[in-house]
Amino acid sequence: MIGERLKQKAGFGVLLLATLLVVVPVIFIIGMIIAKGWSALSLNFLFTMPTDGMRAGGILPAIIGTVYLVVVSIVFSLPLGMLAAIYLHEYARDNTLTRVINLAIINLAGVSSVVYGLFGLSLFVVFLKFGVSIIAGALTLGIMTLPVIITTTREALRAVPKSYREVSYSLGASRWQTIRHAVLPFALPGVLTGAILSIGRVAGETAPILFTVAAFYLPKLPHSLGDQAMALPYHLYIISTQIPNIPENYRYGTALVLVGLVLIMNITAVVIRTRFRKRKK
Amino acid sequence: MSEANVRTLGAEPKIRVQDLSIHFGKVRALDRLSLDIRKNEILSVIGPSNSGKTSFLRALNRLNDLESHMRMSGSIFLDGKDIYKDMEAEDLRKRVGMIFALPISLPLSIYDNIVYGPKMAGTRDKKALGAMVEKSLRAAYLWDEVKDRLRSSALKLSGGQQQRLCIARTLALEPDVILFDEPCSGLDPISTAKVEESMSELKKSHSIVLVTNNTKQAARVGTRTAFFLMGELIEIGATEKIFTAPDDQRTNDYIVGRFG
Question: What is the pTM of this model?
Fold first, then answer.
């Protein structure tokens, strides 16, 4: 008996160790960013334009650009991905074509982001003549997040108990009514999880925006979707590699703002998700 | 012609099942089954597991349609209309309601559970819906227990209350036929008695089919009883006869508990 108990303790120990190994680097990274970047944070840093060849002043245009990109790309990809997932899970027959489509979606999630960047450049910037613009970048980022949104939505739909559907059908509801009223409301929290994952990815990716939207430096804020924009990850890349003699806390401060921005957006999404869950109880 | 003939006989059945066979993939669930369900009766269907009782029940409101590997032959008539050829599944299910084995309340309020069906059918009038909620809850003997908390979640009700809520939800559609699929399998004796009471009351205005694993329940509430075995109808007749002097030895064996 004692041997069994020891084995159990050892087992839990290994699991705990694995968890710590995952958590520790995250804490370390965040801690380092905060420690080195905190001193740069100020209202001036957040709300003014860069000056002195981006060695001083604020990072407002990069913040605005990233917010633009996240909002526009999610507005584009969340509904589209949801609708595609609903079709694939609820309507499409299980045949070779759907299986190929599903496989393609899974593979798309593994394509490297620079490929999406090149794709966005050739489709949106050149072929559709959007030019290097927020809309081109946001659509590129949106396409990049589609596989994640489709996959999480499909899992969320799958997790809705079959009995809800049967009850709905047995009360005379049509197929669409059943999906709309007995399936989707209960899948929405799961769908929002996909949105949360996507927000972080959209805000943080550099390669897809490299050719489609990002500007090295702009003296003005963007005021339409057709404008170029600066963005936090690309700005961070520039000030870290392209411009000499930048104070260290300026670089880490930019990283801190990026992390903080993603955190705020995610918290907003989590709050919405909790609201949905509560309403259904 | 044949339809006219049936009408002239007077005792036209509510539902007529003819030569119904159902397969799920390669598994045969029902084999050339024919029987009638009369108006204002409770037809109890008994039989061991895998006897096809539930497949039979789910054929009556076309819920089997949801299974992708289902094949069926034969026909089912509701008031003389072929439910698989002359009716849309949605319209059929409004007239043939179903109560499931486990009480499945949708995670909505009590009120919203009951108006779900009528709303899907296009009723928007708030007053009509409110009246419908009260009427259905009263008919299911639940009104007094929940009238003060119609807007709270249905999931907070006890199992027995939830099952009566499911009955009320079905009644809100004013169906002609109600199918009960082992409605009391998860309920305590008192809740069971309440559900049986509402069944007997509903018989006055509805045709009821009750699938049950509880032979005593079939004996208590059934007007007639049908015994299924391995997808075949072995015997159907008045409940007293089935339980006292069945024609078939296998029926007798099942009732006295020699198998199943």
Answer: 0.81
